[in-house]
Amino acid sequence: MRGYNVMFPQGWDCHGLPTEVKVEETHGITKNDVSRDVFRQMCHDLTIQNIEKMRATMRRCGFSIDWSNEYVTMLPEYYRKTQISFLRMLKSGDIYQSEHPVNFCTRCETAIAFAEVTYDDRTTLLNFFDFDGVEIATSRPELLAACVAVAVHPDDERYAGTAGKTLKVPLFGYSVPVITDGAVDPEFGSGAVMICTFGDKQDVHWWKQHQLDLRKAINTSGRMTSIAGPYEGLTTKECRERILADMKEQGILNRQENLEQRVGACWRCKTPIEILSERQWFVKIHNEGIIKAAKEIKWMPDHMYSRLENWASQMEWDWCISRQRVFATPIPVWFCDGCGATVLPDETDLPVDPTAVTPKNACPVCGGTSFTGEKDVLDTWMDSSISVLNVTGWDGGDIPERFPAQIRPQGHDIIRTWAFYTILRSLALTGSKPWDEILVNGMVLGEDGFKMSKSRGNIIPPEDILKDYGADAFRQWSAIGAATGSDIVFSWNDVVAGSRFQTKLWNIARFVLMQAGDSGDFTEDSVTVLADKWLMCRLSATVAEVTGAMESYQFDRAIRGIREFSRDIFADNYIELVKGRLYEDEGPARDSALYTLRAALATICRMFAPITPFFSEECFSYLNEGSVHAAGWPDLSFVDMDAARNGALLVEVVSEVRRFKHDNGMALNAPLGQVVVYANEGIEDAGDASRALNAKVSWTTEKPHLEQVVSDVNFSMGIIGPALRNKARGFMDAVRALPEADLRNGVSHVTVDGEEVAVPEGAFEPVYVYRVAGATVDVLTLKEGVIVTVLRIA
Ligand SMILES: [Zn+2]
Ligand SMILES: [Zn+2]
């Protein structure tokens, strides 16, 4: 609508653990129960089904997606590019293979990245036991077989002189060295710490720093290995129970205390992660470059940038990209069975599944012809982190002209992953930031304010809303529900309000079309009457406000601007004001209103089109100006300061007199006599006020000559009754008979039946009326000293 040729692609990020877990659940299997091909096919089929459902919902919702640029990451044409990007980064040294401790989910049986670890608080037991004469406290006794050292603080006098000595590991009997390290907390437990490979990140740190042995006690399925001796084959939980029981039996378990702990778990299945050292593939993380590129990107809202920065600056380990799973892009690598060399395919031969095919040529190192394909597959973020390269046309060749893209829309929940990895990969593959701007949206919460989840039962499928209220009311809720970037609570009330607003706007449109449907030939020059000029000014101001809101992605402000103008200004004020002119007048004054009505409706439709595409298109179609979505964004600058000011006064006068009618129990169309507006400027309203109020309205710059007279007396019976008893009636007659000056000023006594009676405090009040030229009028006081006198018809 603003003249740009926009490509809004739709992609489907398919690969990954959630799909595999769902397939395992649905079919009641694990990935090892069927062949890789069969399992992959099951995942593929489930994904296709889900894409079809989501695609239908998105179309129904009216998303303006360019479906010709749809991409599906599990299809060969896409993952070929993922494999090219892998080979490029492998050759440039940004990807390497190494045995290094990684986060590992033993239920999913795969390594995972830090971004996939979620943290939960839990209470566990801290066990104090005798470790060859030194007391050790640990929450993970099952890791005893993985103990490689005992560490104490260098200044801890309790352990002075123990550094360099060895201690025998209880139950297992092998010896480990005692080392000192400033990072040991002497206050925790006994001040002596058992270092295992690996209990946590700190163990990894110590293990590297002190070049300790590696003892793998837990395998990738979460069972104890042979170094656990008699505990081999047990799960970690079973092993912990057995070891504690054995310690008790040997009398070395001193005591147990509760311990509050933060535990890392697999984001998908919530199993506590282990840190296992296995051969994995890694992407190098260059934190500083990523932060520098992130700063060159415009973040909306801008505070979202700090989430990226915080994450990037705390990354200590490289990104582990290999997964021991099935449904993902294969890592395009073979290993020579003869010499162990890594053998790569030609880019022209991609995509390849190295577990299904062999290299075309013999091993370049030893000439061997027997190879083993890499079984590990890639983290799904390796696919989606090149989505921007894919949509801008990258194919491994030159950097596309359209790169970087203008904008990335995404949720705040994937700043650490999609945004972070995309910046990383774009820098590695092109040397440039991936986009100019990133627009970060919040998450939709259930009506109860909590994240939607099956267990809470607060999920509302979009199809339910679409069925009852249609896409546009649904879209109005999402636009108005929260500021951009904030989480948005789902609200049926907001959807209903959206639907009602459409009904209101439809009624307005029908009125406008009935009156002005054929008046498309008029130009802005037809606007000659005050009320019309005023409306055009307000319409211009609304266009400016809505345009500004849209440009800064403040959709809630945009929709509020549209609603207020349509409902409060256009319908409630303007249309009520000009109805009479439309019905009674002919000629230029009527044409002025016709042009204005039509212009306002067309402009509302255009502004509303991005939010309510179906409704706006339907409304706009009756104006015979083509599709609203092909029409330009309104560009209106109707400026008339006098009309803006005087029109506002006209509207205020009409609404105040209407309020006066209502307050006095009169029908809104009830006739009045003369209404005089005493204002600072003379106003020519072409008779709009007279027709709207069913009165003869005149405007004057003269000062009103108002005469205040006492017309009646209000008595307070609650005071008079008890004070005067049987004299009350006579008292009231006497008061009514007083001269006007006494009624205004008050008197201390009145004469009742020849007797002086004191007037009780607050017994009566005079009632005043105003007169102009002898006629009694009602007086309304408006803003800025404007006075309106109303003559009622008897
Ligand atoms: Zn898991
Ligand atoms: Zn070889």
Low-pLDDT ranges? none
Largest sheet: 6 strands, mixed
Which cofactors or ions or other ligands sit in this model? zinc ion
What characteristic shape results from the CA principal axes?
elongated
Approximately what portion of the residues adopt beta-strand conformation? 15-25%
Strand order of the largest sheet: 25-24-31-30-29-26
Radius of gyration: 40 Å
C-alpha end-to-end distance: 57 Å
Helix segment tally = 21
Task: State the secondary-structure class.
Answer: alpha+beta
State the helical fraction: 25-40%
Mean pLDDT: 94
| β-strand number | 31
Description:
This protein has 794 residues and is α+β, with helices and mostly antiparallel strands. It is built from 21 helices and 31 strands. The strands form ten sheets. It has a six-stranded mixed β-sheet with strand order 25-24-31-30-29-26. β30 and β31 (787-790) form a beta hairpin. α7 (304-314) crosses α10, α11 crosses α12 and α12 packs parallel to α14 (555-584). The longest helix has 30 residues, at 555-584. The radius of gyration is 40 Å and the shape is elongated. The two termini are 57 Å apart. The mean pLDDT is 94. The protein binds zinc ion (2 copies). Residues 336, 338-339, 341, 363, 365-366, 368 line the site of one zinc ion (ZN).
